[in-house]
Amino acid sequence: ADALATELARVNTRLKRSNHSLDKLSRTDELTGAENRRGFEQALRTAWRLAKTQQQPLGMLIADIDHFKAYNDTYGHPAGDECLRRVAAALRETLGSAARVLARSGGEEFMALVPRATVPLERVLERIRESVRQPVQLAGVQQQVGCSIGVALAPEHGGSADALLRAADAALHEAKRRGRGR
Fold this sequence. Notes:
Order of helices and strands: HHEHHEEHEEEH
Structural class: alpha+beta
Oligomer: single chain
Radius of gyration: 19 Å
């Protein structure tokens, strides 16, 4: 009976580890290592509840690589994939521990949550733009990539996580409308 209980405990432990690994895989963008949209939405709900409970500001940013389709068409999909990996790395490095989550939400768009957003986000945005803009060797050619960024801060932008997301998205569209790279 003890041997059976021990074996069941081992199997249960392996099953829990496997479930944890599967859950992590289901929330991760394989190309960039960032969270995917599903992981971001889970993190947003958690961060929103925490910010509301603690009465702390929550910043959200959405970054979109400017003219990525043309880049991909010109240099090919392998270079486009490398560009996405480098932009994700630049965002991760620039945001550091300030970001609760960095996610690739689709195509060439990344989202991040910045809890307790006490540092003026404009400075963070400028560091991100500069970091992404650094020339890199891609497809055998020195390339420079730019991005447009929209940012919103709760509670200023409404009383829900969805309102925060809509406000950041509207700010991104406004940045693009004004000429990109903003």
